[in-house]
Amino acid sequence: MNPLPALMVAPNGARLTRADHPALPVTLPQIIETARACAAAGADGLHLHLRDSKGEHVLDAGLYDEALAALGRAVPGMAVQITTESRGLYDPAFQRALPLQTRARLVSVALREITADGDIAAARRMHMAARARGIAIQYILYDASEMMALAHMLGPGEVSDPRLQLLFVLGGHDGRDATPAMLAPFLTSMAEAAISPDWMVCAFGRAETDCLIAAHAAGGKLRVGFENGFWMRDGSLARDNAARVGEIRRLTAQPPLGNTDTALRSKAG
Predict the structure, then answer these.
(1) N or C: which end of the chain has fewer CB within 10 A?
(2) What are the chain's domains?
(3) In angstroms, rounded to a whole number, what is the distance separating the alpha carbons of residues 254 and 217?
């Protein structure tokens, strides 16, 4: 399976529009233009949200495959991860089926969404089917306590596999601004579970940059972009997604201060 890219851009998300920021990409041509600029600025991955003809969030296997092909031509060195975010429009069964219906090799799923109907067995079957096809599922965790639910769903062998991909969300769409201190419970949960997954952090709000710097220092990978915040570290409004990518690339150009194991031992002991 493909590992997570080191620096992924999330340029739009499912909720925001160009009324929120004029450089937020909505159409596929805008997403491709943004992908090129962000790749030049240092991003090696893109988290893909698509919109329908009315600009609304959409999950559609055919549209995803069209976008993946177009992005593959435009930015062949950039990994592209699709989302299964429901936005209140899609049920868990639909979300669980989608990863197996596209050509995507990287897929993001929210644990709480794909298990919202209580069908844990179906969610595990999705995971195992994706694994068999070489599709990497990244589980979004909004709270460190969800680590236990994920371990219960996957079982000891799968949750301890170092290829397991996780995204830790700091802050949220509900207006909660992230702080670097919000990372600590996730690090503690990994230590308590004795796992070393392929993990990444995204952070909402004006402290996005400082949160990502903290995650980098702890050995994590990074997701940055307008889905999570529009602000540069100095508080100014970012010109575009590439500006956010460029700032994070510059500030994390050196190797992490410690590897994940060192960070976890520090947090655990």
Answers:
(1) C
(2) 7-268 (3.20.20.70)
(3) 10
